[in-house]
Amino acid sequence: MQVNHFHVIVRSINQFNISMNSIFLNMVCILLPILHEVLDRSPFL
C-alpha cells in the first residue's frame, strides 16, 4: 500500500513538473523576442 501510494505521489509530481516546464518554455518563447527588441533599442549596448 505504502509503495503504491508513494508511486502515485511521484507520478503526480512528475506530471506537475512537466506542466511547469511547458509553461516556462512558453514564457521564454514569448519573452525572448521582447527582450531582444529591448536590447536592440537600448542605447547602453
Structure description:
Keywords: Membrane, Transmembrane, Transmembrane helix. The chain crosses the membrane at residues 20-39. The protein has 45 residues and is mainly alpha-helical. Helices cover 89% and strands 0% of the residues. It contains 1 helix and no strands. It has one helix spanning 2-41.
Helices and strands in order, then pairings?
Blueprint: H1 2-41
In short:
Helix content is 89%, strand content 0%. It has one helix at residues 2-41. The mean pLDDT is 90.
Multimer state: single chain
Write down the Rg: 19 Å
Class derived from helix and strand content: mainly alpha
Low-confidence stretches: none
End-to-end distance, in Å? 60 Å
Give a short account of the largest sheet: none
Q: Name the average pLDDT.
A: 90
The count of DSSP E runs of length 2 or more, i.e. the number of strands, is: 0
SSE string, helix = H, strand = E?
H
Quick one: overall form? rod-shaped
Strand content: under 5%
Instruction: Compute the number of helices.
Output: 1
Helical amount among residues, as a percent range?
A: over 70%
